[in-house]
Input
Amino acid sequence: VKRRLEEKLKAARVNGVSFSHTQHTIVKLLLYNLWLVFQSKGESLQDKEASLEFPSRLHSLKDRDTVTRFDREQVGKGLPTAEEAFNFFTLNFDPDPPDVIETSSRRRQKQRKTTDEDEEHEDVDEDIQEENESEEAPLVQTQEDLFVIDQSPQDFLEIKKAEYVGYQKLLQRQSELLFTPSFRTPTSIKLPENMKPRYLEDEGLYVGERPPVSLTNENILENRILKMEEGKKWFGDDGRIIALPNPIKESSTRPPLFHMEEALDPALQTVYRKAVKSKYANLYIAGGADPEGDYQLDVDVSGLIFSHHPLFSREHVLGARLAQLYDQYLTRQRNNLTGHLTDKLNGLRNALRNMLESHSGLNPTQALQQRISEYNLEVRNTRHLRDSEQEKDRTLLKNIVKVWKAIKALREFQKFTNTPYKLYLRENVDRVSDEQDYEDEILAEVVELEAETEEEYQNKLAEYKKRLEEWKLCRKKQFQKAKKKKQKKKKKGQAQDDTEGEDEEQDVSESEGPTDEPPPKPEPPERPDLGSIEQWVREKTLRIRRKPGEAILIPELSASANITASELCPAETARREDVARRSLFTKILYNDKEVSRTDSRSLNTDFRVHFGQIFNLKIVNCPQSISLQVFEEIGSSCSLLAQVFLPVPEPSVVTGSVPLEEFEFSSNQRVMFDHEGVGSVPLSFEADGSNKQSLLTSGKVSCCVSWGIGDDDVPLAPPYIGASGLYDMKKIGEWARQSRLDPNDPKNASIMQLVASSGEVTAPEYFRLEHLQEEFNFVTDEELEKSGRFRLLKLRNQEVAEFRNYKFIPALEREVTDTVFQEYEKRLKEGEVIDTKEHLDSHRALVAKYLQKIRESVINRFLLAKHHYLLSDLVIEEEIPTIILGINLFKLAEPKRPLKPQRKERKKVTAQNLSDGDIKLLVNIIRAYDIPVRRLQSIQVRPFVEVSFQRTVLQTATADGPNPCWNEELQLPFAPNGDYSTASLQSVKDEVFINIFDEVVHETVMNDKNRGKSIQTHIEKRWLGSVKIPFSTIYSQSKIDGTFKVNTPAVLLGYSKEKSHFTNSGFDILRSLSEGTFITLFITVDPQLVPGESVREKFDTQEDERLLQASERFERDAAQRYPERPCITTVIDLSGKTVFITRYIRPLSPPKELLDEFPNNPLEATPLVARFVSLIPSLPDQVSFSATCDLWSTCDQFLTLLAGDEEEHAVLLCNYFLSMGKKAWLIIGTAIPEGPTAYVLTLEQNLYLIWNPSSGQFYGQYDTFCPLQAVGCLVNPDNVWFNIQQYTSPMRVSFDISKAHLWKPFFSRTFSHPGLSSIQPEELVYRRTDRAAAAELQDRIERILKEKIMEWRPRQPTRWNRYCTTTLKQFLPKLELIRGQDVAEGHRHELQSLLGDYRISGFPLNLAFSEIRPIIEAVYSTGIHSVQASNVEFALAVYVHPYPNNVMSVWIYLAS
Amino acid sequence: MAELHIIGQIIGASGFPEKTLFCKWGIHTGEAWRLLSGLKEGQTQVDSPQIGDIAYWSHPIDLHYATKGLQGWPKIHLEVWHQDSFGRCQLYGYGFLGEDFNEKEGGRETEKQSEILLTAARHLNSAQFTCSCVIQRIMQHVYRAVNIHTSI
Output
């Protein structure tokens, strides 16, 4: 095929193929062709088809090498392998597609356009030649040349020749990229180095069947793991991946439940069983319940013997003791410890002797010596043991004889026999050998002892010698020292006084005395007396051993004596009858439950009871305890004598194979009888009653417990664990450790588990719903707590102030930095710590903290209230535009009137639709009136306005004259820290400063060189006055429109007012109020922001329900009739309670100092009081509480907080006026720029005066510049009047409240005043302000301001003119005195004269003191620091005037 | 540390004797789960459908949980109440939706609309509930052990 192809290829080359096609169509075809190619590749056309199709194409195909090769490959292989297909689609994808597209398109075209071949023949030839020249050269060039005529966007598509990569190369590249884990991994690399694989299976350990995994998969996994770090830990000792045994069971253990509907297999039918309660519910033996797993415990109670019983006679007591001793004797005899030890001793001695003999000639080696000494020690120990045993034997024998003698004596004494005991003593002697042995024994012992004593002596002697040596050495040293001392003494004696020398010597001797005390001379040890040893040995032997030749006594006890019949011993009758009356039985208790009892048997005279009964217990519970209770019956009453606990038998203990065992029991009951029975009391056998012995009822039960045997000789014992395992965990654990069970074998699983758990088998003292919860946790509580991200999320959710508006919380733990929390933690930690640095004043710092607290509590309450949504909060329905065709058409026809623009309703924007940069503050500065004019220069004042907000400064063009008109709109960007929620917008504290400056142009000639050629112009701006409007006002009003009085400094150096008009005033204080500069402004925010809505929450109250209802009705009526007029009857106090408004008004006396200033003229004092009130800093509620709620504080709270908004100021001022005997009302109305606010109205000599409480200014009723725009209602202590007149403007309103058709009273005849008590305090307490503190504050403000000004001038040096400063300082108090009212003409002159020929521009500022920040802001906004002149000097003077109660007036005099 | 977002809505209910219905809901989790943000219980508005039988609430649920263990997956309980013309409320049915609302391993998001059969005294009714869960991060060793293919 290949060859054929090549031939055809040649033919094709000769033919040359062309295609006539614009690039246009080519590209159009591209997609289709590409698809085709993929089809042919991916779907793999049939071999034949492919091979047929391709050659036929090749006929007409030109000599594109790539293509042919490409196709050849196709043909050669026919069907592409999966790998190839994969490569085709994935490998080198980037360069390939264009090639493929290109080639395929060509191919395609050739098929179709064979007819057009000749037409474009030449073109294509060229193309082909190009290609032949350089195969790698891109095709684009030529094509661009070719088809330059009809270019289309597709022409710029870069089309490249297919970059063919040879198959081998491809494979190579693949091998670099792909990981082929087809080969097995050798075991060696899977194991740690130098380790041989270990096959646990071969070692006989149980391994378990591994789950079937195909070898390929395993290899893949192994290779992958090997590539990993620490991959080797996944391999076991045998070099295979660690795997758990196959968990799949061969057959299903669960019965299949196929047919839900049909009747169940009867075997699977559930059977109802009544619940059985059992204490040992969890201790059931596995399979114990079913009939096959039948476990039987046989308890054989054969009988019992009393070793003491209250009915024993004395003889019985002795008899019992004799029997006991005899038993003891028999056991000792059986064990024969003495003989055993004697043999051992002999053996040791022989061995020692042998050793010594064999090595007698040689020098004993070290090892030998060691062994000999060991032997010696052993011999000694054994001898001691033997001696003590022998002694015991002898004592026992003696005791037996003694007791027997006592019995015999007793029998003789009482003349009858009660017990059948009889003791025989047999003698057995071999005299000669006995004596020989005896002597040998003594001799050997003596020799040994001698050797021991000798050794001991030698040791002691050695010790003595050593110590003697030491002692001597000591002596010697001491002697030498003494000598030296003497020499010293001699020398010193020559040089110094005798007395001194003596002293010294004494010192020396004293100091050395205690250390050099010679040790006592050791005593030499006494030589032991060898002769005494033999004697001692003999004595001892005599004591513990029978004498040589004495008979060896062997006691023999028999019960063959006759018991005297009852008739013969009348003393005994009562006791014997008593014995006969009694009977005994035993109960068998299994796991503390009685399971059966024996028959009652009467007590025999020999105090033995025989039961001989076997009980078969069929058990289901694990045996915990088996016990017998012995009961004694007298007549019908029975009493518990004792309880005997029996051990649970091993499973190997089967009935029939175990002997009876005797278990001792005893009871501690005291029993006494009046007959011969001894009772169970202390008893003495001596005549004088001494040597009492306590006798307790005791005895032995003979019984046996064993597992039963089934029919087929299978022991009916539970499996291994059930029996011995359960009652001794420790033993089992030990056994399991010792026997080295294979822990892998599932057969041993239960026991291994048991062993593992046997360490602590304490039952938990708690109950857990989710058991194994702790075990499956993958993170601890601490870690969860520590997580910064979670903490952040939680805090945000809780709306904690710092995080309330946190937008993006990092998704990863490491991206959460600790700095986020720093501020929050600081706040938590500092809580109570007052930072005086920030506030300059400790009192204000305290207030700030207090305010913070109130704020938090209020906020928390509002947060709750915020979550109460109304339907309108959730469902925002855009109003459907009324599509009334007629009107719209009419509108189209309406003539366009560009000169009469119609107001369009602005769209309100909700916070969530906003982003940074969207909000702009629009300030439209229209005009100003009465701007101060320059005093000296003939040139007119050239004022311009500069608006600064958030440190963005914009200015208008410069206008001319004192009444300029700018009519300019300034756009200031607004950035509320990325958060546009209502709450955050409300809490923006920034203010808009509108400053009026005068532009002064100095023309200075540069220097001599340039004289006449150039003139340098300095532009200097001088501050004339300012208006500041807080952003919160703009936000809540949404627009501010009006004429404002410009806050001009009292003294403007170099400027004077142009007195344009004079108003006559009959009254002294009613000077022309139009005096001053005014500016007309329009401020709004674009787009219009939705001001926050007030909180809809009912606050609790102490007001009368009737009053509340009335006030609600009153307000509702007012709102209905005059929706624009504010009407307030109830307000919320600081603690969040609703309070009726009149309660706030109460005459309160102003500070005494203020009244004292003008004792004669109370009218003079009025503005002073107003000024005092205005000096209290103003802080809007919205800012402080960040929510739209109006909280009213009482006057004392207000004075303590020293912050409040207009209402508080107005209330305080009103109260002051009332106390001064004026007629005063509170006006609730709207004003610019504050919006809804409160003013104070006073009636003075038939003239109504309106006071602005925040500025201390007052206006006549007919003053055009009065900021009050509308009057809503009037409040005094007795009543509230609502304005029901046609107009609201104060100018057009009659303030005569007595007229009911003008003012609607709240309390009227129908609803009289209930006598509401005021919530204001009786009297306000004023504190004198500390002048020293004020002075200190003054210094600090000055220092800070100076630093700040220097800071704002980073480029130029800032020089301070001290002389000027001191001069200015003197003026400030004067200014305060005249309250800045009067621009003293003299002042300027004075200054001028003082300062000589300085060119000065400057002004004093007056501020109410609250914090340092606003002061700095104010100074910054004047722009005094921006003076560029090279030789400028500054002067700054600060004066703080203290008013009572820490109200401070701050004066700052700035000049440059 | 793993996080779970439960985002969904209570769509509505149908098949109750009356149509004026509202729903109380709550989410219960095991001890290992900590609520990071969102409300875990609430009440829908009363819907009184004019047309059709289904009372639609479309009540959003948006919770964010963190967990230290895998047990105690959140369960949601729903109570459907009827409010009559006098404003009296009466419980019509209730139901529990167990952990299966976050079944389907492997998927980063599982979305499921499930109908819960609410047990009522006389009727079998249903409330619809959609929920999608986003399992955000399960610690690495859990990956290893369980081999969940959860991508972050």
